[in-house]
Amino acid sequence: MKIYTLGHKIPDSDSICSAISLAYLLNQISYEATPARQGELNPESKFILDRFGFDEPILKTSYAGENIYLTDHSDLAQAPDDIGQSHVVGIVDHHKLGDITTNAPLECWIRPVGCTNTIIKQMYDFYHVNIPKDIASIMACAILSDTVMFKSPTCTKEDKKALNELAKIANIDDPMALGLEMFKVKSAIVGTPIRELVLRDFKDFNMSDHKVGIGQLEVVDISLFDKIEDDLFKDIEKLRLEGDRDSVLLLLTDIMKEGSKLLVSSKDESKIEKAFDKKLQNSRVWLEGVLSRKKQVVPFLEKSYSTT
Questions:
Q1: What are phi and psi of 13, to 5 degrees?
Q2: Domains, the chain, ranges and CATH?
């Protein structure tokens, strides 16, 4: 069976690396799998693939008539537009269960951990497949990225265990030093177009029939945004109108201070204020300790939208 492995529409490092690591695993257990991507790579993902000698997964946005194995998502808003015409053979994900449905049984590996590649490491163990050094390297990078070097509240002992085992396979002596190098690449924003920054790590969600977009930019020093913050805000307002969204939020996350400044463009800011029990000032608010969109932002917004 021919299968494409692919992550969400605007791919992050976990999406890209999981498409590659999952495809390799499937190819070892009698499938014919090809890693794919729905969008362009961000700087961190490019750094990881270049560092460990990988080509980019193929760019493919239409999957009608194809067999696909989804990684790092199970929401229709993040899946290919023609997913209803494809055959979803599996899902591996670490987010909430989304709204994708299938007309046939499928393999599902969905677990509450900090990174999809942590689950894929468990899949390798389950199938007794050895992980090559280069594959282990990018899997380790994905875990470092998604768990924010273990700072994220989504990080679990399973993520730490997986990273330690992958680092040994990959001969990575100091994973945290590698993680910091990756986040410095993420923090290089000078000269990058504003829209590219807004969409660097952006996802749409359906919240009680309201379209809500949430982006996140993780840096080692939030002051990097001082000169462009107003431009970022103007662009999320444009993005909200262009996509007929109810709200667009952008998290400016400082991984060293362990918190995020939230920029908000919304038809009704009271929904956002209710979600976080904080008043917005000039459509902005600091969220102490907030590093995870998945665990610390999305659930509270969904609750607010469902009750208003």
A1: -65, -35
A2: 2-184 (3.90.1640.10), 194-306 (3.10.310.20)
Establish how many alpha carbons lie within 13 A of residue 29's alpha carbon, considering only the half-sphere containing its beta carbon.
13
Q: Where are the alpha helices (DSSP H) in 4-71?
A: 13-28, 43-51
Q: Which residues contact 103 (CB under 8 A, 6 or more apart)?
A: none
Q: Using DSSP bridges, classify how beta strands 210-219 and 202-207 pair: parallel, antiparallel or unpaired.
A: antiparallel
Q: What stretches of the chain adopt beta strand conformation (E)?
A: 2-6, 32-37, 58-59, 67-71, 87-93, 107-110, 202-207, 210-219, 247-254, 259-266, 284-288
Nearest to 247 by CA among 229, 271, 217, 228: 271
pTM: 0.89
Output the CA torsion sign for 92, 97, 100, 105.
positive
Token readout for 261 is: 């400044």
pLDDT tens figures, 12-51: 999 999 999 999 999 999 899 999 999 999 999 999 999 9
Residue pLDDT, tens place only, 180-213: 999 999 888 888 999 999 999 999 999 999 999 9
Give the number of other Cβ atoms within 10 Å of residue 55's Cβ.
8
